[in-house]
Amino acid sequence: MDNDFNKYNEAAEMLKILAHPVRLCIVKGLLENGGCNVSHMQECLGAPQSTISQHLQKLRSAGIVTGSRNGLEIKYTVIDERVKVLLPILFNKR
Amino acid sequence: MDNDFNKYNEAAEMLKILAHPVRLCIVKGLLENGGCNVSHMQECLGAPQSTISQHLQKLRSAGIVTGSRNGLEIKYTVIDERVKVLLPILFNKR
DNA sequence: TCATTATATTTATATATTACGATATACAAA
DNA sequence: TTTGTATATCGTAATATATAAATATAATGA
Question: Which residues form the HTH arsR-type domain (chains A, B) (predicted)?
Fold first, then answer.
C-alpha cells in the first residue's frame, strides 16, 4: 500500500500550497483571465501588498505559477498542468 | 463577493484536509479497495493507532469519509463525490 | 542624478497543525 | 461481571503557517 511514500508527500505538498483561500483565488483568477499583475490582485483581494507577494512566492516556488516582468509590472500565469485540470473540477457547479 | 469568499474558503478547507500524506494515503487506499478498517491502515502506514484515528477524525468531520461499525471493527469508506473525482486525477501518471 | 511606482524580502508575532503517549469508550466472548 | 480487542479522545510539546509592517530592490522617467 505504501510502496511510494514520496508520491503522497509530493501530492500533499501541492495540495497544501493550493489549500488557502487567497492562493486559490489568485490561481483561479489567473486561469480565467490568462494572467494578472500583483496590483490588480491586491485590489481584488483587499490584502496588503506584502501578503499577496508572499502567497505568490509560495506559488512560484512550488512551480504552480511563473511571473514575467514587463517594465514595472510582473505578469503572473499558471504553468502547472495538474492545477489547470484540478481547479475547474474543484469549482465545478453541480 | 461574500459568496465568492465563502467559495474559496470552503474549497481551501477541503484541500487542507486532503493535503497530508497520511490522509491522502488513507483516502486513496479506501477508494481503491472500497473500504478498510483502522487496524489495517495502521499496518500499512506504520503510524500509531491514535495518529491514524485522529486523521480519520479529520476526514470524518470534513464529510470526506464515513465509518460503519461491524462488531469491533469500523469500516471506513469515502463518501465525498468531489474527492472521488479529484484523487484519481491527482495521482494520474502522465 | 533623484523621485516614483511595482514588487520582493525581512522580521516579528500570532495562530494552526502535527504527532504521540495516556486514557477512555464500545463491543464481544468467557 | 471480567478480559481482550478495536477505536476514539485528551493533553501538550514541537513544528509549521499566516499576517503585516518595515525595508529593500528593480525599472522607469524627469
Answer: 3-94
